[in-house]
Specification:
Layout: H1 2-12, E1 17-21, E2 24-25, E3 29-31, E4 37-38, H2 40-52, E5 56-60, H3 63-71, E6 77-83, H4 86-89, E7 93-94, E8 99-101, E9 103-107, E10 119-123, H5 127-134, E11 138-142, H6 149-153, E12 159-163, H7 164-170, H8 174-178, E13 182-185, E14 193-199, H9 204-219, H10 222-230
Parallel strand pairs: 1-5, 1-6, 10-11, 10-12
Antiparallel strand pairs: 2-3, 3-4, 6-14, 7-14, 8-14, 9-12, 9-13
Length: 236
């Protein structure tokens, strides 16, 4: 729409859109063998930039920093799968969801969430970490999804709470496989739901533009192609 185009032009007048991505969270965002940033979330972000005809600069961050950086205007878009929580909604804008997320519990067979004495691996700044802390569980926080196997393999943590898409990579790790952990879906409402990109709260017009672009790539087949390239199941 015209008013959106004007809003986008105003947002872009200061230069390209600053887009934050993760780099060690396969298959959502990672570097390929040539060092190029790619993955489901990264390529969705590229497709949105193209659809909005916006110049975008990609910056690597970690989840633990993202909310502060978006809220403070350092980034315009956080191209990261954020579960929409009331705490986050107070600080940033959420674009329309780009897939539905569920969370898995990994532990030895028969070891349930909340078992006393367990230390649980989580990603710093994640909805999973927040949930575990609210339960009073002892956590071992790592900076990136790609590091989740480390405390488990080292025996520092005995369980992990992991978004399902991220778990695909974790389950390919040979050392992790040797631990013999099994996965179950966590039923907590806070850990199931729509995942969205975050948007700088000062740019409501950008949120609308991102939403419209997402609707278009879902209609024109681009979303489906990216889904098929990176994930073994449909997430739309």
């Amino acid at each position: 729409s015209l008013c959106l185009a004007a809003g986008m032009a105003a947002a872009a007048a200061d230069g390209p859109l600053q887009v934050a991505v993760l780099e060690n969270s396969p298959p959502m965002s990672f570097r390929d063998d040539g060092g190029r940033l790619t993955g489901f979330s990264v390529e969705i972000a590229r497709a949105l930039c193209e659809e909005m005809q916006a110049r975008c600069e990609f910056h690597v961050t970690v989840l633990g920093r993202l909310l502060d950086a978006l809220a403070g205007g350092e980034f315009d878009i956080g191209a990261v799968s954020l579960l929409d929580t009331p705490e986050r909604r107070q600080r940033i804008l959420f674009a329309q969801p780009y897939f539905r997320s569920i969370t898995l519990w990994f532990a030895k067979p028969g070891v349930e969430p909340g078992t006393p004495g367990l230390r649980i691996a989580v990603v710093k700044g994640s909805a999973q970490e927040n949930y575990a802390r609210k339960q009073g569980w002892e956590t071992v926080a790592v900076q990136t999804n790609g590091n989740l196997a480390t405390p488990l393999v080292a025996g520092v943590a005995q369980a992990a709470i992991v978004p399902m898409n991220t778990s695909l990579h974790l389950q390919k790790n040979v050392d992790f496989q040797r631990l013999g952990l099994t996965s179950t879906v966590m039923k907590a409402p806070e850990l199931i739901g729509n995942a969205s990109f975050g948007v700088n709260p000062q740019l409501p017009e950008l949120k609308i533009a991102v939403d419209e672009a997402l609707a278009r790539i879902k209609r024109n087949g681009v979303y489906e192609r990216i889904n098929t390239q990176f994930l073994p199941f449909r997430v739309n």
